[in-house]
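Lab meeting, item 3. Inverse folding demo.
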């Protein structure tokens, strides 16, 4: 979702200004591109050029196992397709419809949708602004990272550096957690190579956890303020075992809600999903908080206050939550 990066940063940073991030996109210093897990992320230009080639195996596997496009690409000269697409996209960004039309004209004997999908997976597509810019709307149009940024992809990017950065953000973590975050195989060998530079722990189930020696590890009793997270937030998608985000009473009979919903954290664990309903004029809003774990009166009040802040942020200050309604999941 185009607004998710803004929402995710707002939930983490004080005095976050979404217009600054939007301007970085316009200045080509930040781009929207498929990287970890084969999904769209907003990353810096430097990270785009390094991460995209590292994630190519994920996209190769996705293309090969596609039930419709995989078979349609058998026997196709893919390099000829990519050689045609590169200058076409360098000329100007194209929508999916435009790319499929061009493929139909150039390769009428093949499935145009499959060819366009192959380009999406085998070329480093970036979504061009104003798509994803705060306060603007636009259909998806894409070009290659190389033509948009004027620089080539990194020839030999370091997976070791990426794993260390993952641990800096999400450690302590297991090897399986790192693999879930990236969807790459071979993470055990990477962690074994990095082991002399890491600190290790054991969780309650005896699993080995890895972290950076100097990483912050707050006392377990440190209170965590409520947070409203967007769909697909990396906090929930960066671990193989999401039960760590469930409360003790909730963990025994239910896992946290799917990450495709916006989620609410209270004291660091998932307590609810959320949605906003606006009136037809767009001037009033009701925030629905669908609880999956019981909240104390004080926790509910803190969640409601944070939810009102969220509504003001997402509406750019134009709308306040006239009501926060707590419901029960199921």
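The presenter then showed the designed sequence:
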């Amino acid at each position: 979702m185009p607004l998710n990066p803004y929402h995710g940063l707002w939930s983490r940073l004080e005095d976050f200004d979404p217009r600054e991030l939007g301007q970085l996109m316009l200045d080509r210093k930040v781009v929207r591109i498929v990287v970890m897990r084969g999904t769209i992320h907003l990353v810096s230009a430097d990270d785009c050029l390094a991460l995209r080639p590292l994630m190519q195996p994920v996209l190769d596997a996705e293309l090969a196992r596609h039930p419709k496009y995989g078979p349609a690409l058998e026997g196709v000269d893919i390099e000829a397709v990519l050689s045609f697409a590169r200058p076409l996209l360098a000329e100007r960004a194209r929508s999916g419809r435009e790319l499929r039309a061009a493929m139909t004209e150039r390769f009428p004997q093949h499935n145009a949708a499959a060819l366009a999908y192959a380009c999406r997976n085998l070329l480093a597509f970036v979504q061009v602004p104003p798509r994803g810019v705060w306060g603007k709307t636009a259909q998806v149009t894409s070009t290659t990272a190389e033509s948009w940024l004027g620089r080539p992809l990194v020839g030999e990017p370091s997976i070791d550096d990426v794993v260390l950065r993952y641990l800096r953000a999400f450690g302590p973590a297991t090897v399986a957690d790192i693999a879930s975050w990236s969807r790459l195989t071979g993470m055990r060998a990477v962690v074994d190579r990095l082991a002399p530079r890491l600190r290790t722990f054991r969780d309650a189930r005896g699993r080995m956890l890895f972290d950076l020696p100097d990483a912050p590890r707050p006392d377990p009793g440190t209170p965590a303020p409520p947070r409203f997270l967007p769909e697909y937030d990396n906090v929930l998608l960066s671990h193989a075992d999401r039960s760590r985000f469930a409360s003790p009473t909730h963990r025994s009979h239910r896992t946290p809600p799917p990450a495709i919903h916006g989620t609410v954290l209270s004291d660091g664990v998932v307590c609810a999903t959320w949605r906003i309903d606006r009136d037809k004029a767009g001037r009033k809003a009701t925030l629905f908080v669908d609880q999956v774990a019981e909240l104390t009166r004080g926790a509910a009040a803190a969640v409601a206050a944070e939810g009102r802040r969220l509504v003001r942020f997402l509406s750019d200050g134009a709308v306040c939550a006239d009501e926060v309604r707590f419901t029960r999941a199921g």
